[in-house]
Every structure is written in C-alpha cells, then in structure tokens.
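Batch manifest, entry 17 of 40.
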Amino acid sequence: MKEKIVIMGIAPCLEEDLGNLSKLQDLKEVDFMAVGVDCSDRILFDIQYAVSYHQEFEQFKARRNKAGLNMDYMTHSHKAPADYVWPLVARSPFSGSSAFLGCQVAIGLGYKKVVLCGCPMQGKNLINKRATDYDKFQKGWVKFAPQMFGDKVKSMSGFTRDLMGSPTKEWLYE
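Output type: structure tokens
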C-alpha cells in the first residue's frame, strides 16, 4: 500500500482531473480507487479498490473483465456483498455519495493523502441516464467531511474542491 490514493468518480471531468493531477504528482506513486460501476472500465489502468453504496460489484467485475483490466482489487461498501463492510456515517438526508464512502475507506485503510478526481459533487450524472443530481450529496460533505477527513482529503474539481481544497505539490510531497 502506498501513502497516497486517488479516488476516481464518474463525472465528465475525470480525465481532465487526472491530467491536471499528473502535473503535480507522478501517478505511478499512488494507489487507485474506482467509485461506482460506471468507473469500472473508464480508466484503463490497475485499481486497488472498488467502492459503491449500491453493491454493483458483479457488474463492475464483468465490465473490467470484458475490457481486459485487472481483477485483483478489493471491494468496499456499507453492506454485503463486499470484501469489506464499513459503518455508514453519511446517510440520508446527509448522504455524501459513494465518493464520501471512498474517502472514509481510504482514511480507514491508513492513506495519508487522498485526492478526488471526477468527484465534484455538483451537476447531474448524464452517463447512465439516471440523471442523478449530485448537488443533493453536498449536505453530507458539509456535515461530515471537514471533521472526519481534515487535511487528508483534497479534490481536483467542483464543490468538493471548494470545500476541501485542491492539492498542491507541497501538500502532496510534505
């Protein structure tokens, strides 16, 4: 396990966020966590973890397998089936989404630096036609994230960046 992890969501800014982060951090020096089934085959490199509130792990695995991507990752959720089950902290009406759970998992696993990419928690999810409005998850972030995650979590974009701050080279390498 490395000291830093990148949590990847499914927002349209994911690739841009990763590109901007790569200007600050060698991505070979970090672990990766994919959040949600729609992230399963979007990025074509190895991941160490998959996290979901929705336990879509069979679909996630099938998509990665079809794309020829690594299958040796651990699954995490707030209930079975998952390799590891975590207590649900940010729950409705203060849910923080699977990205929040990903941060909870990353901190719980001992990562010192967590960077969110593709997790702005604003706008709508237009990828899977459910058109989820991500603004509703902001309440959970405001209520729980600052005290739970402190300075260990930063974000590359959107509301989560405004709330938690963006990573700098100094922060990443301190």
